[in-house]
Amino acid sequence: MKKYNVAILGATGAVGQEFLRLIEERNFPFAELKLLASKRSAGKIINFMGKDYTVEEATDASFEGVQIALFAGGAASKQFAPAAVKAGAVVIDNSSAFRMDPEVPLVVPEVNPEAIKEHKGIIANPNCSTIIMMMAVKPLRDLSKIKRIVVSTYQAVSGGGKEAMAELEQQVDDIVAGKEPVANILPGAKFPKHYQIAFNLIPQIDVFYDNLYTKEEMKMVNET
């Protein structure tokens, strides 16, 4: 079986850690593995499949010799994807950076795997809610035209990253201890006010558009 040189950009974050878990679970055939992150996380040691890997700071030169680059998301996708492609890697991007780019195939393997062949170095995947919905909608669409879809999502705090998960844990600890919980993270950094997430639901993800749908809701419409 052919083995590939793989890089993970954002290896220390929640999504990067999930990439590692899946590589091990599925026994993905990698020859070399390069773990990349921001300057702040560079130097950390991650033990993976019995071997210690040192996290490197991501630069344009990080992708030399890499064949598959898994991007865990965030602003780094736009910054480093061109360099990775130029170095000869195929970028599989988990962020929203390229989802609406007509030159980049938007792929759910169980729905439109044939689109992968159209890639020009970058393959995008939809957001998590769209992927899950498409898995159910695709076989229905194969049988009959779909006129309308009504969606309700109940999304995990993990979607807000490590900081949001840490704040949830801290708020639970504070409430159990009889302290007033502090909210600094959700629904997001752009908001003037943040809300307690522990034992709570926040009926908003990301900013509102002029049509009164949120950015997250419109992602589902546009990506679908």
Can you describe this structure?
It is a single chain. The chain is an alpha/beta fold. The protein has two domains: 122 residues, NAD(P)-binding Rossmann-like Domain (Rossmann fold), CATH 3.40.50.720; 48 residues, no CATH class. It is built from five helices and eight strands. The strands form two sheets. It has a six-stranded parallel beta sheet, sandwiched between helices. It has a two-stranded antiparallel sheet with strand order 3-4. α2 links the parallel β6 and β7. The protein is globular. It starts with a strand and ends with a helix.
Summarize the structure.
The chain has 224 residues and is α/β, with parallel strands linked by helices.
Which descriptors apply to this entry?
224 residues; alpha/beta; Rossmann fold; six-stranded parallel β-sheet; two-stranded antiparallel ribbon; 16% strand
SSE inventory with pairings:
Blueprint (H helix, E strand, L loop, with lengths): L3 E6 L4 H12 L4 E8 L7 E4 L2 E4 L1 E2 L10 E4 L4 H11 L3 E4 L28 E3 L3 H16 L17 H16 L38 H9 L1
Distance between the termini: 35 Å
Taken from the alpha-carbon principal axes, the silhouette is globular
The counted number of beta strands is 8
What's the architecture of the largest domain in CATH terms?
3-Layer(aba) Sandwich
* Name of the CATH first level of the largest domain: Alpha Beta
